[in-house]
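Q: Here's a chain of 152 amino acids. Please give me its 3D structure as tokens.
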Amino acid sequence: MKNALKSLLAVAVFAALTQGCSTTSGSLGAGAGIGGLAGAGVGALADPGPGGENRARNVVIGAAAGGLIGAGVGYAVDRSNRDAKEDGKRQGRKEAEDEWRKSASASGSGGAPELVPAKTEARWVPDQVKGSTFVPGHFEYSIVSPAKWEAK
């Protein structure tokens, strides 16, 4: 009985320490850990045979089987959550596009506005000497009319 409890404790500690290694948002690791603990518990309660000689083996087999089943269930739960999230995003995107189309047709603009670029003028400034500073020739740009949005 002491060996079975030690094995169960070892499995519990291992499961607790490896929870952070799960990359499937925790569901896979949590499922494997919980399944492993439950399987180890069932294995400890299973018939150990004459003299209790198979109890440790039962705990290990139960922990392995429970861990695999728990990991499978955790993966299925994670996949279901991910699919539901993607469905929600898809539905929200569709609703937003429908609303945008509805508002665009109601305003009569026929679509997204268009950005009209700013109008600028370029002026060449020749070489100059200002005090004791030489300023090489360069262009100066001035904005005649700023950029603006216009409906199509």
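Q: Can you summarize the key feature?
A: DSSP finds three helices and six strands in the chain.
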